[in-house]
Every structure is written in C-alpha cells, then in structure tokens.
Specification:
DNA damage, hydrolase, globular, Ribosomal Protein S5, domain 2, DNA repair, binds magnesium ion, Heat Shock Protein 90, DNA mismatch repair protein MutL, binds adenosine-5'-diphosphate, alpha+beta, endonuclease activity
Length: 348
C-alpha cells in the first residue's frame, strides 16, 4: 500500500495562501517589472524609470511621476485583492492594465517590498514596507511626488522559486523585453532602464498616438532599419481596429521573437494572433523565416476577456474568426500594395 503522506485537512494560513498565489503572478524578475510598470502606466505617469541590480534579484526599482498614493491608499495597496481600478465588478469594462489587486501583495509575499509615494499636490509622502508577507506600519517619508517601488531579495521567502532564477544577464534581458513592449504601447511615456551603473535602454517621449509618433517609438526600440522596412497597417472591421507597422518580407528574421502584439494596449502572447500573422505572410516567406512587426488591436471591452491568465498575457475573443480575418486581410492587403510599390521602384 502507498504510505499516507497527507495529514489532517486544515485551512492554509493567509501568508501561505499569498505565497502560493504569488507564484502565478510573479514568476521571475521580468514579471515583477511588468506588474510594477503597468501600475505606473495606470497611474498616469509621463515618465517611468526602472533600475535592476543583479538581474533584478538584488533590486528592482520602479519610479514614476504618476498620481501617487496617500497614507490610507498606500497601506491598502499592498493588501491582497485591494485595487482602485475595478469599477465594474462584472469584469466587462476593464480599461486599466491592472484590476486584480494581486501584484503588490504577491511581490510583498516573496520579497522585501518598499512603497514610497506622494500624491500630486500633497505636502508629505508616505512609505510602507512588507517583508515576506509581514507588513510594517505606514510611515511618513520624503518624496518629491509620484511613486517609487523597491523590491529587494526577490524570492528570498520562497527558496524553491529562487532556484529557478537564470543568470543575472538573462533575467535582465527578459525584463528589458517586457519594458520594451510596454514602451511600444505607450509612446507618450518616457522610459529608462538602468543596471544601477548605466542606462541600457532609453525611450524618450514622442507625443501623441498619431502614426508617426508610434513609428518614432518603434524605431527607437526596433531600430532605424525597421523604420525603413515597415509598412503602416490601419484597418477596421465591425468595430475592431488594427493599427501598427509590419516589416516587409525582405526584412524577415530566423525566429518569431520579433512580433509584438497588443490588445487594447496590453502586450499579449496569443496563439490566435500569432497564427493569423503566420497565415498572412505564408505566401511571402519561407517556412523558417518570420516577419518583424508591431500590431495593435483595439476592440470593444465586451469583445475580449482579459481575465484568462494570472499575468494577463493571454486573452479570449468573443469572435476569433473575426479577429483572424481582420489581421490576415489587413496584412495581405498591405503586403500586396508594398509589392506593387517595390516593383515600381525597381522599374523606375
Ligand atoms: P492592481 O494593479 O490590479 O489594482 P496592484 O497590486 O498592482 O493591483 O496595485 C494595487 C493598487 O495600488 C492599485 O490599484 C493602485 O491603486 C495602487 N498602486 C499601485 N502602484 C501604483 C503606482 N505606481 N502609482 C499609484 N498607485 C499605485
Ligand atoms: Mg497592478
């Protein structure tokens, strides 16, 4: 017979529940960076600065000039299921990047977290600290305005997860990728990433969301060559809108890691979207070649469910066929047009 490993049934403690939940939200430094930077975006920041030491294991610091929090808010912010964003408890109209109220509590459960904030116009700032799920009282703190979050010793409270950390270099690169995706979606916000000694990524603000501003931001991240080899996409069907820039087939890559896809401003890794892109390019590219592109799909909030995945990287659409059709036809149309232009240029 199998040995009995189970003990008596009992409810888990709040701290243990939080640690378990944290594992889904914060998988590695890059996921903490994603959550913190999304919070800064939701707070209306115009600049967001990220510092990562030792690949984020030593320190993750995210500073913004957003709306800030007062003493009561800062104390609630680190509690689980505390959010200022979910106006609609039916989970239909989700306009913000966050809504689950899980991120700060999760990070606080597995690391040493400090939140320092001062709302616009307030004459004092506040700080709250959480260590491995243990919250210290709110204290007054000097701060110029906005919010600064510091995460130290990520996963020190969950040694099992700590073992899965890759090298500092790999974690730093992953976090940089997350930041780049968010920077693509928000060209009006200035971003920097630094390793504590030097700034390794800088995206200056480029103003409004007009096509050119977006292309400027994409060029700042993907390079001038992308800028010179991309065609603009702008198509609409039944209330769904697809915009962005798609690389010419001649500017393809050997892997599919250069496809940046967004749904309602949210970076996603979605099979349906990736499949539609592949379908659109299949007549233009060899099987082992992949396009470089950044596509932004905007749909009415009742058309998409973003509450599928703890990290919100996957979404579900009400009508997958409509989404696929829009992407395939918009890309094909643009590629065909580009083909004509290219041959005219050669001929002329
Ligand atoms: P969510 O983003 O899902 O609401 P979080 O745990 O990420 O949950 O954040 C909890 C709350 O803390 C937010 O709803 C917001 O009110 C506040 N908050 C977090 N980060 C910031 C920030 N950078 N600026 C202002 N408020 C913030
Ligand atoms: Mg959040």
């Amino acid at each position: 017979a199998l040995p009995t490993i189970a003990g008596r049934i009992r409810l888990l403690s709040e701290r243990t529940i939080n640690r378990i939940a944290a594992g889904e939200v914060v998988e590695r430094p890059a996921s903490a960076v994603k959550e913190l930077v999304e919070n800064s975006v939701d707070a209306g920041a115009t600049r967001i600065d990220v510092v990562l030491k030792d690949g984020g294991r030593g320190l993750i610091q995210v500073s913004d000039d957003g709306c800030g929090m007062d003493a009561d808010e800062i104390s609630l912010a680190v509690e689980r299921h505390a959010t200022s964003k979910l106006k609609d408890e039916d989970l239909v109209n989700i306009a913000s990047l966050g809504f689950r109220g899980e991120a700060l509590a999760s990070i606080g459960a597995v690391a040493r977290l400090a939140v320092v904030s001062r709302p616009k116009g307030a004459d004092e700032g506040w700080a709250v600290r959480v260590e491995a799920g243990h919250k210290h009282g709110v204290e007054p703190a000097a701060h110029s305005g906005g919010t600064r979050i510091e995460v130290r010793d990520l996963f020190y409270a969950t040694p099992a997860r700590l073992k899965f950390m890759k090298t500092a270099r790999t974690e730093y690169a992953q976090a940089g990728d997350v930041l780049k995706r968010l920077a693509m979606a928000h060209p009006n916000i200035a971003f920097t990433l630094s390793d504590g000694d030097r700034t390794t990524f800088r995206a200056p603000p480029v103003g409004d969301l007009a096509g050119d501003a977006r292309l400027e931001r994409l060029a700042a991240i993907l390079g001038r060559e992308f800028h010179d080899n991309a065609i603009e996409i702008d198509a609409e069907r039944e209330g769904l809108r697809l915009t962005g820039f798609a690389g010419l087939p001649t500017y393809s890559r050997g892997n599919a890691q250069h496809q940046y896809l967004f749904v309602n401003g949210r970076p996603v890794k979605d099979r349906l979207l990736v499949g539609a892109v592949r379908g659109a390019y299949q007549d233009y590219l060899a099987r082992d070649r992949h396009p470089v592109l950044a596509l932004f799909l905007d749909v009415p909030s009742e058309f998409v469910d973003v509450n599928v995945h703890p990290a919100k990287a996957e979404v579900r659409f009400k009508d997958a066929g409509l989404v696929r059709g829009l992407i395939v036809s918009a890309l094909r149309h643009a590629l065909m047009g580009a083909g004509h232009r290219a041959s005219t240029t050669v001929a002329g």
